[in-house]
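Morning!

This is the sequence you dropped in the shared folder:
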Amino acid sequence: MEWSLNAAEGARPAEDRALRILYERQADPLYSYVLRLLNGDRHRAEDVVQETLLRCWQRHELDAEAESLRPWLFRVARNLVTDDFRARMIRPREVAGAEWLGNVNVETDGFEQVLSGVMVGKALSKLPPSHRDVLVLLYFHDLTTLEAADVLGVPPGTVKSRTFYGLRMLRATLQPDATPSTEKRVVQAQRR
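The structure's back. Tokens below.
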């Protein structure tokens, strides 16, 4: 791998020389190590090497023996790879290019939408008016919580509470296998 290094603006010649030596001695072995950790992902490996050497440059005296830095550099690189892996596990999976097209139902007729609309309409009619009004304002009229609170003349916290319980009752109503305990919770929520 060919590494290029541009001197930092205003860098002193001694620091510039030490940084060049660091890159010359450590970049290739570090890159090979990181490339193995990342299963051959060259672009991410380059990013990790750059970040590792930057951290070394910021935290260490570069006049010191370069070989004594190698264990520290490898540990920092491994920590960066681990942190990146953990961050990727938390985020939703990224969908590549046209992969999402396979998930789209291409042949849609309006029947499914009409059926869903009828079912939701019936379920909404079973809700108490206070909960139904909040849901209609938020989801069908696309108002914010504050705007819905203004229209209804109630505090925003009440709108949030009614939204929570209204959605809960709506979900329980729309579930085809509503158990007695679910129905009991709907009745309890309606009393609120």
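Headline: Residues 13-37 form the longest helix (25 residues).

More detail when I'm at my desk.
O.
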